[in-house]
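Thread: quick sanity check before group meeting

JM: Hey all, I'm pulling together slides for Thursday and realized we never actually wrote out the predicted structure for the chain we discussed last week. Dropping the sequence here so it's in one place. If anyone has concerns about the input, flag it before I start.
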Amino acid sequence: MSIHPGAGQPAKHDTLVNIPKLVSAYYLNEPDLEQNPEHCVAFGTSGHRGCSLNVKFNESHILAITQAICDYRKANNIFGPLFLGKDTHALSEAAFNSAIEVLVANEVQVITQENDDYTPTPVISHAVVCYNKAHPHELSDGIVVTPSHNPPEDGGFKYNPPNGGPADTDITKWIEDRANQLLLEDLVEVELFPFAKAKQSGFIKYEDLITPYVDDLINIVDLDAIAKAGVKIGIDPLGGSGINFWPVIKEKYGLDLTVVNPEVDPRFAFMPLDKDGKIRMDCSSPYAMANLIALKDDFDIGIGNDPDYDRHGIVTKGGLMNPNHFLAVAIDYLLTHRDWAKDIKVGKTLVSSAMIDKVVKSHDKEVFEVPVGFKWFVKGLSEQWLVFGGEESAGASFLRRDGSVWNTDKDGFILGLLAAEILAVTGKTPSERYKELEAEFGAPLYKRIDAPANAAQKAKLKALSAADVTADRLAGDKIIEKLTEAPGNKAGIGGLKVVTESGWFAARPSGTEDIYKIYLESFKGEAHLALLEQEAKALVDSVIS
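JM (edit): ok, ran it. Output follows.
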């Protein structure tokens, strides 16, 4: 994919989303599933997402999804409070209010941030986990209204069941099917309570969710070491939901911490354009993170986060770290500096770097490799045999310093603060430590590309078995594994991964576009990576054509 000429530059004013038009479309546009199946509710790896302008994220969708969640709660005896959070996207406010109307009508006790403020995804997960530990017979759950790092015109809605993490496929399929049934029946079974009266209903509790989370951070990150070392930290919240947490963290722990951009704007007009010319709050993108990267020499560590704070971007004086590089460094550091149980595993997605495997093996620990999606780490983190779960897309979480569960969703706060702890304790930035890992294990090159595929070809790719791949060599090396199931949990990966001693590739179809994605990694240099790419595309095309 070619890089847009405006990538890393401010958006032009006339390209910014029209917020009044967007919000009006949320209320005025009505989905018609019979005539337009693409209007249906569809849960991906992180909930239902879409735009009101093309009738994929509208009031009817949210009313139906929220009623479906209420029905799921009743069917599964979940009668504790529901923690409700939202991020700073324009449609998040509208969808939050719609959800309130349905939740109150169903007599669900809702707990949300006081002053009608924003609440990040990891804070909702942390609140659910802590509440359920104290109230095992009255389980709570959560909803976060967010499309994560998606463009400003998008909305998103995701459900976290009582384990605190992203809902697994069985739950999301149940909610999706029920919501679409409600839409087809013109929402006749959706219960509503007028929003104007909801605040006085007794079912909405406005609480301070910032202080409990911030007070607990000392139990997962060594904040005293960061303060003592005087690590200078620059924060770009990217206009996201954690913006009011950083001043509290700074004051509570005496950190040398500066929020370089305090602006919240539903148009995200302050954001540099991403590689494709769109505004996207992707803290793993050097284009989206251009503003913080420009300040890299002013701070020891720079931290950026997406709008719901489940992702992290780490900037050192060397620039923005590749997410895979930081995951490897974080795992190496934690396995060295935490007194956790011996018989534990480290979680990674199958499209994450093989450097992680080498690091984990050097500590005599086992890798737990799963398909794409943080939901696959929830059980292990909850049961505390998985000490770390990380995705190549810059999302991760880990256990407390005493080895107990912290939360079960991705947490951009703790990964950013861990980068500062690594510098404070070791005297080396995470990027400096990664160079040492390269010297020890080799310097892999990692790449992701998109290739065209129609619906039939994507279906073939998703249904592949290892026997369908007849090749025995890839890019000059013997193939040692052909995977259509993840080694860690034997779950289907919805595609294919082929591994050699020197590299690997994984291919999986897009759920929303006529493409498939190829992830590649080589430990033998640029020429080998290019050959790996060429042969991977040819191999996949041969089995899906």
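AS: nice. The chain has a mean pLDDT of 96. The two ends are 22 Å apart (CA to CA).
JM: adding both to the slides.
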